[in-house]
C-alpha cells in the first residue's frame, strides 16, 4: 500500500507530521480522516469548498489524474493546475507522496 506523509497546515494548531497508508481506491481525505489527521473538509468531500487543499511536495505523478470538478474548484482559488496542489477529497494515491495541508483547522476544531 502506498504511504503518504502528511503535514498539517503550518499555521494550524497541530504541528506533527503523520504517515498514513492509503488504498489506491480511496480518496486521500478518507485515508487521512481514518487516521485522525487534522484536515478541514467543510463540504464533506464534494469538491465544493476547497478547504481540503493540499500542496504536493513530492509524488505528484503517483496521484490520480485531476478531474473536471477538482480542476474547476482549484481554479476558483487561483491555484496552479500543474498538480502541485490537489483536493484531498478528490485525489487518490497509487504511490508514495508527501503532502501539506494548505488550510488550517479553525480554532477549537480537531480530531
Ligand atoms: S472537502 Fe470540500 S472540496 Fe474537498
Characterise the protein shown here.
By secondary structure, the protein is an alpha+beta fold. It has one domain (3-101): Roll (Ubiquitin-like (UB roll)). It is built from two helices and five strands, in the order E-E-H-E-H-E-E. The protein has a five-stranded mixed sheet with strand order 2-1-5-3-4, with helices on one face. The chain binds FE2/S2 (inorganic) cluster. FE2/S2 (inorganic) cluster (FES) binds next to loops.
Can you tell me the CATH architecture? Roll
**CATH superfamily caption:** Beta-grasp domain
User: Which value, in Å, is the CA radius of gyration?
Assistant: 12 Å
Count all strands and give the number: 5
Q: What are the low-pLDDT stretches, counting only 5+ consecutive residues below 50?
A: none
Mean pLDDT: 92
Q: What is the share of helical residues?
A: 10-25%
- Helix segment count? 2
Query: What is the class in the CATH system?
Result: Alpha Beta
Instruction: Give the biggest beta sheet.
Output: 5 strands, mixed
Morphology call: globular
Strand order of the largest sheet: 2-1-5-3-4
Strand residue percentage? 15-25%
Written as H for each helix and E for each strand, in order along the chain, the element string is EEHEHEE
Amino acid at each position: 500500500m502506498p504511504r503518504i506523509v502528511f503535514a498539517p497546515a503550518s499555521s494550524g494548531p497541530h504541528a506533527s507530521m503523520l504517515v498514513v497508508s492509503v488504498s489506491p481506491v480511496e480518496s486521500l481525505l478518507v485515508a487521512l480522516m481514518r487516521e485522525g489527521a487534522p484536515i478541514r473538509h467543510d463540504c464533506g468531500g464534494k469538491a465544493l469548498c476547497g478547504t481540503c487543499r493540499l500542496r504536493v511536495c513530492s509524488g505528484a505523478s503517483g496521484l490520480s489524474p485531476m478531474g473536471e470538478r477538482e480542476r474547476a474548484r482549484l481554479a476558483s482559488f487561483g491555484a496552479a493546475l500543474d498538480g502541485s496542489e490537489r483536493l484531498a477529497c478528490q485525489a487518490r494515491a497509487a504511490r508514495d507522496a508527501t503532502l501539506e495541508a494548505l488550510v488550517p483547522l479553525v480554532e477549537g476544531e480537531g480530531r
